[in-house]
Design a protein that fits this description.
The chain is an alpha+beta fold and about 160 residues long. Helix content is about 60%, strand content about 15%. The protein contains five helices and four strands.
Length: about 160
């Protein structure tokens, strides 16, 4: 685990890894785990997230999983990036969440317009709520679209109540 002592605190975490080429399963599992965290891919085998103790722990778990699957992995705290690099990474993260919010908004609007059986409506609304919570959790840089997604889901919930 990284402990900042007498140094500038890290702003970013980079996970670098290499996995055996024999099977795509470990690569897919790694990619999915990083997607769940909202990481941005820098290169095949490197991804970045803003620094937090929680994300450090999550990346260490992913790194341990990679090693258990026969690969190599390192979690690297990064103190500074160039302004252009940092801006580009933040932009990519905001765009990813904006797209996610847009998909949730569209799904909620479809749900609002579509006739649905009560149990199915409850399940779909719950799935939208969980999706929104996950998107908010990995929205590190206040992406646009959140308010519109929340409003669309609220309207779908009101429909459920009528």
């Amino acid at each position: 685990m990284y402990v900042a002592t007498g140094m500038t605190a890290p702003r970013w975490l980079v996970l670098t890894w290499r996995l055996p080429a024999a099977s795509s399963t470990p690569r897919v599992a790694t990619w999915r785990s990083l997607q769940r965290l909202g990481a941005v891919t820098l290169t095949p085998g490197a991804a970045i997230l803003p620094y937090s103790e929680q994300l450090l722990e999550q990346l260490e778990w992913i790194a341990d999983d990679i090693v258990e699957r026969g690969g190599d992995a390192y979690v690297l705290p990064v103190i500074e990036l160039s302004e252009a690099e940092e801006s580009g990474i933040q932009r990519r993260m905001r765009e990813d969440r904006k797209q996610e919010y847009e998909e949730l908004r569209e799904a909620a609007e479809v749900l609002t317009r579509r006739p649905a059986q009560r149990p199915q409506l409850d399940r779909e609304l719950s799935a939208l709520q969980r999706g929104l919570a996950r998107a908010i959790e990995r929205d590190y840089f206040a992406s646009s679209g959140r308010t519109r997604a929340e409003k669309a889901i609220r309207l779908a919930r009101k429909r459920k109540e009528t």
